[in-house]
Amino acid sequence: MIRAAVRVLVSNWDGGYTIPSRRLYPHQWSWDSAFVAIGNARWSPRRARTELLSLFGAQWYDGRVPHIVFNPAVPDGAYFPGPAFWRSRAPSGSATSGLVQPPVHALAAWKTHLAEPDVAFLRRIYPRLVAQQEFLRVARRSPEGLVSIVHPWESGMDNSPAWDLPLQAVEAGAAGFVRKDLDAVSADERPTDRDYQRYVALARAYRDSGYRDPGAFQVEDPLFNAAYGVAESTLAKIAAECGLDPAPHEREAASITAAMVEHLYDDGLFHARDVRTGCLVRSSSAAGLTPLLLPGLPREIVNALVGTALDRFALKDGVLPSYSPSAPEFDTARYWRGPSWINLAWLVWQGLKDRRPDLAAPLAEGMIAAVFGAGFREYFDPFTLRGHGCHDFSWSAALILDVVAEHGLEGVPAAGGEVGEQPGGFGEAGDVGDHVLL
Ligand code: 2M8
After folding, report:
1. HSE of 72 in the Cβ direction (CA atoms, 13 Å)?
2. CA–CA gap between residue 332 and residue 339 (Å, rounded)
3. Selection from 75, 61, 44, 152 nearest residue 434 by Cα
4. Measured between alpha carbons, how far is 253 from 255 in angstroms, rounded to an integer?
5. What pLDDT sits at residue 413?
6. Is residue 240 over pLDDT 80?
7. Closest CA to ligand 1's atom 3
């Protein structure tokens, strides 16, 4: 399994970073690179450092880290929306999108440092991580002290049912574009055309405002805010390691945690809040469990989240659906509307490891069992563990390396079966040979 995971990461490596998947996502994605670095740190910390520094090489002057950095060698038509749509360049000259994704990069930088201490790397990346946070404070902070996203693509959980209601305020607009995603995966695993039209209309309006004005969609997402808060508590550790003052970061982490509890928490789960209406968007998204990542979350809230995870997300079974199966919008196969994703399970696992090792262990085993059966697929049916979306997906491979390094191989069936035995799984386990030594 380890060899197969490294093989995926090696074959998706484009020289300075790792693409999420060859056919569906042939460029660099922001939070994918952070998850990939976390896995690469386990076998090539140098590659993890390169991955993160290459992403931050495309950071804008205002501090934003674009959600896609385009590879100029890939034809414009290979992915939609490509560079011709976004019409934006980073100061480095790279064509990029103008949106962002959850800021999980400070955590990735810290884990890379833990794997192989390198204060020079921390000193190099720290100001960039601070600027990434600063952009969110300046451009996206509401009077409640929370940061907002202006597009479902910024949540990373693009097609989540949590966005159905806020998206109703968005005019779909005329189609006038050709989707590329359906060339690679089946339509029933992807967003509907109507949702895609809304995504494109929103992105176009944001672009036309010079990537300044939030359009018809503006929400405070619990996962994004949890990532922002964890970034601050991690920046405190990085600052201390660099001989700088950690206190401002600690204060910021405490204040975002308090704001989230006050404004986004209700009845055992965190929810998104629609900034335009001021109302909570009650949903059953597993994003609502990710504030478990926050070290300062009050104990009674932790306990309530764990209760919800057990009751509504069947946490004891070890496979975390992205949306509660008890909710009517749940779908086992359509992306981000219910299937299990390794990155989401990994984030919740991070939040449970110290607090509830008894529940973190089955979650680790569930992630391992999913890829053991189906290979490094993009996501999995939470009941059957059948693989969905693209094959050889980078963060599934990377995060499994991290889980196995910490948890061991418990979860791999003791007898019978080969890794990825399900059709379309790993295929022949190739030999990564020399690459492991890179
Ligand atoms: C998916 O999002 C992209 C748009 O950014 C897409 O559907 O084309 C999401 O799963 C997102 O979280 C992820 O970063 C990206 C690349 O893996 O794919």
Report:
1. 5
2. 5
3. 44
4. 5
5. 67
6. yes
7. 153
Angle at CA of residue 204, ends 201 and 207, nearest 5°: 150
Specify the residue with its C-alpha closest to ligand 1, atom 11: 156
Name which of 291, 292, 294, 269 is nearest 282 in CA terms: 269
Atom 17, ligand 1: residue with shortest CA distance: 20
414 Cα to the center of ligand 1, angstroms: 34
Q: Determine the length of the chain.
A: 438
Residues with CB under 6 A from ligand 1: 20, 25, 29, 31-32, 67, 153, 156, 158, 181
Helix (H) or strand (E) holding 391: none
Q: What is the pLDDT of residues 49-73, one digit of tens each?
A: 999 999 999 999 999 999 999 999 9
- Residue (of 214, 217, 220) closest to 148 by Cα position: 220
Give residue 184's pLDDT.
83
Q: Is 378 a catalytic residue?
A: yes
pLDDT tens readout for residues 287-323: 999 999 999 999 999 999 999 999 999 998 999 999 9
Ligand 1 centre to CA of 375 (Å) is 19
pLDDT digits (tens, 9 = 90+) for 206-220: 999 999 999 999 999
What ranges make up the beta strands (E) of 142-253? 219-220
Residue 144 has pLDDT above 60, yes or no: yes
> Which residue reads 């704001």 in tokens?
259
The residue whose C-alpha atom lies closest to atom 9 belonging to ligand 1 is 156
- Of all residues in the chain, what percent carry a pLDDT higher than 70? 94
Split at pLDDT 50, 70, 90, the class of 420 is low
Backbone angles phi, psi at 376, to 5 degrees: -85, 65
267 noted as active-site residue = no
90 token code pair:
């980073």
Atom number of ligand 1 nearest to Cα 156 = 12
Distance (Å) from CA 196 to ligand 1 centroid = 13
The residue annotated as part of the active site, out of 158, 164, 241, 421, is 158
CA of residue 221 to ligand 1 center, whole Å: 17
C-alpha closest to that of 291 among 279, 282, 302: 302
The torsion angles phi and psi of 141, rounded to 5 degrees, stand at -85, 135
Look at residues 366, 381, 376 and name the one whose alpha carbon lies nearest to residue 413: 366
Which residue's CA is minimally distant from atom 7 of ligand 1? 158
Percentage of the chain modeled with pLDDT above 90: 86
- pLDDT digit string, tens, across residues 93-123: 999 999 999 999 999 999 999 999 999 999 9
pTM above 0.70, yes or no: yes
Query: Among the atoms of ligand 1, which is closest to the Cα of residue 25?
Result: 16
C-alpha 336 to ligand 1 mean position (Å): 10
